[in-house]
């Protein structure tokens, strides 16, 4: 393993906290019957934290985690700009399907110890 590999694996405390939030959200969604298809899908236009299957449909999930008492809640932090980037990334992801399945955008908002699942949170 070279120096670049070591540097690429180092995560800031904020990134590590985000990773923990994604893992918590993933476990919760799997308990609700969703299945993971892909994690951290990245493309030039954006990133999707979790791509899940819910029955025959796809769910693009944005996970936001904020400390308790943060002035901007986790759900409110999904700005219109972030929403647009999610839609672009979803469009790129869907290019792999000849006939794209039904899909929706959900947000898992984690504020301190509280977690909320917002289905159809983003309109495309």
As a whole number of angstroms, the C-alpha radius of gyration is 15 Å
Largest sheet: 5 strands, mixed
* Tally of strands: 5
Could you tell me the strand content as a percent range? 25-35%
How many structural domains in the coordinates? Answer: 1
Distance between the termini: 42 Å
Structural class by sheet pairing and helices: alpha+beta
CATH class: Alpha Beta
Assigned CATH architecture: 3-Layer(aba) Sandwich
Widest sheet: strand ordering: 1-2-3-4-5
Number of helices: 3
What's the helical proportion of residues?
25-40%
Query: Uncertain runs with pLDDT below 50, 5 residues or more?
Result: none
Morphology call: globular
Mean pLDDT: 88
* Elements, N to C (H/E): HHEEEHEE
CATH fold assignment: Trna Endonuclease, Chain: A, domain 1
GO molecular function, one term: nucleic acid binding
Family: Belongs to the UPF0102 family.
InterPro entries: Restrct_endonuc-II-like, tRNA_endonuc-like_dom_sf, UPF0102_YraN-like
Protein name: UPF0102 protein AYR66_11735
Task: Summarize, please.
The relative contact order is 0.18. The chain is of the alpha+beta class.
């Amino acid at each position: 393993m070279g120096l670049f590999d070591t540097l690429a694996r180092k995560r800031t405390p904020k990134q590590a906290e985000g990773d923990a939030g994604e893992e918590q959200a993933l476990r919760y969604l799997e308990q609700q019957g969703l299945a993971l298809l892909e994690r951290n899908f990245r493309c030039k236009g954006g990133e999707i934290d979790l791509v899940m299957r819910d029955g025959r449909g796809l769910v693009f999930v944005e996970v936001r985690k904020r400390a308790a008492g943060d002035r901007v809640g986790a759900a409110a932090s999904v700005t219109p700009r972030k929403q647009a980037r999610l839609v672009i990334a979803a469009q790129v992801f869907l290019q792999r399907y000849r006939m794209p399945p039904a899909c929706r955008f959900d947000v898992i908002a984690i504020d301190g110890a509280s977690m909320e699942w917002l289905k159809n949170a983003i309109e495309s």
